[in-house]
Amino acid sequence: QVQLVESGGGLVQAGGSLRLSCAASGRTGSRYVMAWFRQALGKDREFVATISRSGESTSYSDSAKGRFTISRDNAKNTVSLQMNSLKPEDTAVYYCAGGLSYDRAPRAYQFWGQGTQVTVSS
After folding, report:
1. Per-residue b/e over 40-52, b at no fewer than 16 CB within 10 Å?
2. Is residue 19 within 8 Å of residue 8, measured between CB atoms?
3. pLDDT band at 36 (very low <50, low <70, confident <90, very high)
4. What is the separation of C-alpha 72 from the centre of its chain, rounded to a whole number of angstroms?
5. Strand partners, 118
6. How many CA atoms, within 13 angstroms, populate the side-chain half-sphere of residue 106?
7. SS3 readout for the chain
8. Please, what is the Cα angle at 4 between 94 and 10, to 5 degrees?
9. Which of 20, 59, 108, 110 is least enclosed by beta carbons within 10 angstroms?
10. Four-residue CA torsion sign, 45, 65, 23, 14
11. What are φ and ψ of residue 88, in 5° steps?
12. What is the pLDDT of residues 37-59, one digit of tens each?
């Protein structure tokens, strides 16, 4: 079992930046594909970004592409999401997830963090 803990959420003005981090329990290294999802009020949980085990491949949602960057540090068992040019519509609870498949679907991920709130004001 892998435990994931997100951090770095908060309140930021539109156009600003925020960096989210996710720490995994144990020495997971490159064992799992990692991803970020988010869920806004009144909306379903949606894919944001994913990164391969080695960190060599990444994939982003259309809304995230060009603004967000996912990265990982396998030596530290962490994954990050750098968010730039934030918009009010980015407001959501952001979740870190780990799984065995490089996929955009929530069902591909077995391990989930508790979420961290990101609020972007206009």
Report:
1. eeeeebebbbbbe
2. yes
3. very high
4. 11
5. 10, 92
6. 12
7. CCCEEEECCEEEECCCCEEEEEEECCCCCCCCEEEEEEECCCCCCEEEEEECCCCCCEEECCCCCCCEEEEEECCCCEEEEEECCCCHHHCEEEEEEEECCCCCCHHHEEEECCCEEEEEEC
8. 35
9. 110
10. negative
11. -55, -35
12. 999 999 999 999 999 999 999 99
Report the amino acid identity of residue 53: R
Residues 6+ away with beta carbon under 8 Å from 16: 86, 120
Query: What does each C-alpha distance from 35 to 63, 78, 99, 101, 122 come to in angstroms?
Result: 15, 11, 8, 10, 27
Q: Are 49 and 58 in contact (CB under 8 A)?
A: yes
Residues in the chain: 122
Give yes or no for a contact between 20 and 78, defined as CB atoms under 8 angstroms apart.
no
